[in-house]
Design brief:
This protein is α/β, with parallel strands linked by helices. The protein has one domain: Rossmann fold, CATH 3.40.50. Helices cover 32% and strands 20% of the residues. It has six helices and nine strands. Strands 5-2-1-6-7-9-8 form a seven-stranded mixed sheet, sandwiched between helices. It has a two-stranded antiparallel ribbon with strand order 3-4.
Length: 183
């Protein structure tokens, strides 16, 4: 059986902690995690000036399917919401029953793709006017959708992804290895 796979989509203005924490913990868990740039170059600028080199351009990932699609938040989320490639990937993965995960402002991307519907979800308080039914939990799982509140909840968000793609036992092992006691 092959390792589970995940695609993390980065655009300029992404929130570094929300993107790199899932990448790090997923890779520790043995998930094949590809970081894709929606920009025309592999180098993507984070909201706090940290430049990250993606593994691939998003264009090269179109038509591929992954076990999970991960969308970090940050001010760059506005461009993701308007990118038909991103919205199509979200819709395709969701409709095929694969995991779609979003953190902070990124649940607005899921909303723009039309997949939130009557689902339970959470996100950053700054998006409450757009998504008024935000749940108070750090991480909310409803079917194949995983959402989280923001940078401060990046570790439990990433661990939920690990649990979903591997096992809860593996997520606990990862949590213990990084001295995270909340899992």
């Amino acid at each position: 059986m092959s390792d589970p796979t995940a695609l993390v989509i980065l655009g300029n203005g992404f929130e570094e902690v929300e993107a790199l924490t899932p990448v790090d913990l997923l890779r520790r868990a043995g998930v094949t995690c590809t970081v894709a740039s929606r920009e025309p170059t592999l180098l993507v600028d984070g909201r706090n000036g940290i430049k990250v080199q993606a593994d691939e351009l998003l264009e090269a990932q179109l038509g591929r399917s992954f076990d999970a699609l991960v969308v970090p938040g940050g001010p760059g989320t506005a461009a993701l919401r308007q990118d038909p490639r991103v919205l199509d990937l979200v819709r395709t993965h969701h409709s095929s029953g694969r995991t779609v995960a979003a953190i902070c402002a990124a649940p607005t991307v899921l909303q723009a793709a039309g997949i939130l519907g009557q689902k339970r979800y959470t996100g950053h308080s700054s998006i409450a006017s757009e998504l008024p039914n935000l749940q108070p939990e750090e991480v909310v799982v409803d079917g194949n959708i995983i959402t989280s509140r923001g940078a401060g909840t990046s570790v439990p968000f990433a661990l939920e992804l690990v649990a979903t793609l591997t096992s809860r036992m593996r997520a606990r092992e990862i949590a213990s290895s990084i001295h995270y006691g909340g899992w």
